[in-house]
Specification:
The protein has 308 residues and is of the alpha+beta class. The protein has eight helices and eleven strands. The protein has three domains: 8-115, Nucleoside Triphosphate Pyrophosphohydrolase, CATH 3.90.79; 119-198, no CATH class; 230-305, Arc Repressor Mutant, subunit A, CATH 1.10.10. Helix content is 32%, strand content 21%.
Length: 308
């Protein structure tokens, strides 16, 4: 029996580049068979570090200078790459920027993040897709499973999707996506047209995007990453819009502002913004001193309970 020829291991980098424009979280995509995350390969001789490689090819492809960057995780399952003779290992990164134009020649474009994960946006109430498509499809998957698995499936649906009194945990974005994948309800699972709405992405890029959104939501609780998406001076209303866009839930304005004040996260600049549509709003800035004052200076997030 002949042995399988050894695959050449290639190290790739993928970037989940996130911005918030107006009230919409935005994701930078590049063309592929489906929308894809910007991706490049490491130059083992020319790139001193993985992060420098990421910044280099993002700059070359899109003219975007990345600011905040953090590594998400690595993927290396056999068969991920486009070439059979290669074993593609990808290191995924999360990057936060303010949306700007990208060269038309690059084919890159900013798209609404929730067009890929529409069930994650509760700002206008429970997404219609939940009651109309997702929960019925998951109930069918639960009922159609082996009898020994039905209780575990039902429990997972309850926990992940906030059913029967369980809270909706905004951070479980990846787990919800993986449950939909396991249930065969999305195109990436190999079905031609699953019952769950939402635009698919190339390869496993929607999974990476889900991981990034969940990570970002978690960091809102204990790291001031939201300020990476804002100019140096901003109103509290604008700050709240950005937090709501990322978390997918509405916040109580007075409670949010009390939380900011108690945490010492922002301070007034003494200026007013007259362009808010009503009375001029006070302009604030991020207090960098809070990084030395508190071990977990995040804005926090509320719990969310859904009916059903």
């Amino acid at each position: 029996m002949g042995s399988r020829p050894a695959s050449r291991v290639v190290l790739g980098l993928s970037a989940v580049i996130v911005a918030v424009t107006a009230e919409q979280p935005r994701l930078l995509t590049v063309p592929g068979e489906r929308p894809a995350l910007p991706s490049g390969r490491l130059d083992p001789d020319g790139d001193r570090t993985l992060e420098r490689a990421l910044r280099r090819w993002v700059r070359e492809q899109t003219h975007i200078e990345l600011g905040y960057v953090e590594q998400l995780y690595s993927l290396g399952d056999r068969g991920r790459g486009p070439r059979m003779e290669e074993r593609l290992v990808t290191v995924a990164y999360l990057a936060l920027v303010r949306e700007g134009p990208v060269p038309a020649a690059s084919g890159a474009q900013w798209l609404d993040f929730y067009s890929f994960l529409p069930w994650e946006d509760f700002r206008e109430g429970p997404p219609p897709a939940l009651a109309e498509a997702i929960i019925p499809a998951l109930d069918g998957w639960t009922a159609g499973g082996p009898p020994k698995d039905r209780h575990a499936r039902r429990e997972r649906v309850q926990i992940m999707f906030g059913r029967h009194g369980s809270p909706w945990d905004v951070e479980r974005v990846l787990e919800r996506y993986e449950l939909l994948y396991e249930a065969g309800l999305i195109p990436e699972a190999g079905v031609a047209g699953g019952p769950v709405p939402g635009d698919p992405m190339d390869l496993d890029h929607r999974r990476i995007a889900a991981q990034a959104l969940g990570r970002l939501r978690g960091k809102l609780r204990y790291r001031p990453v939201v300020f990476e998406l804002l100019p140096s001076a901003f109103t509290l209303g604008r700050l709240q819009q950005v937090v709501e866009a990322l978390s997918g839930v509405r916040l109580h304005s007075q409670n949010f502002r009390r939380l900011l004040a108690a945490g010492g996260l922002v301070e007034p600049t003494g200026e007013m913004d007259p362009s808010t549509g009503g009375r001029p709003a006070a302009v604030h800035r991020f207090r960098r001193e809070v990084l030395a004052e508190r071990p977990a200076p995040g804005v926090g997030l509320p719990g969310l309970r859904t009916s059903g």
